[in-house]
Amino acid sequence: MASNKTLVPEAKDALERFKMEAANEVGVTLSNGYNGDITARQAGSIGGQMVKKMIEKYENDLKAGK
After folding, report:
1. How far apart are the C-alpha atoms of 34 and 7, rounded to whole Å?
2. What does the DSSP 8-state code read for residue 52?
3. What pTM value is reported for the model?
4. For residues 49 and 11, what is the distance between their CA atoms, to the nearest angstrom?
5. Mean pLDDT for all residues in the chain
6. pLDDT 10s digits, 27-54
């Protein structure tokens, strides 16, 4: 069973900013706090954008030898 617990609590604020940035890029408006009123499609778009950006960063880090 998956857990929604943040593995590194110190990263929670950065993850929240990252989520808001990804939502903005795909045109979904999120509020601070509860966002259970967005559609599954919108939530999937946000998650997909986050994964896309993480993969891009990883690929760039590999190219740079990091």
Report:
1. 21
2. H
3. 0.80
4. 19
5. 92
6. 999 998 899 999 999 999 999 999 999 9
Tokens of 23: 């939502």
Rounded-to-integer distance, Cα 28 and Cα 42, Å? 7
Quote the pLDDT of residue 33.
85
pLDDT for residue 16 is more than 70 = yes
Rounded CA separation 20/9 (Å) = 18
**Helices (H), strands (E): how many in the chain?**
2, 0
Q: Which amino acid is at 31?
A: S
For the record, the structure tokens of 7 come out as 């593995």
Count the Cβ atoms, other than its own, within 10 Å of residue 23: 21
What count of other Cβ atoms lies within 10 Å of the Cβ of residue 26?
Answer: 15
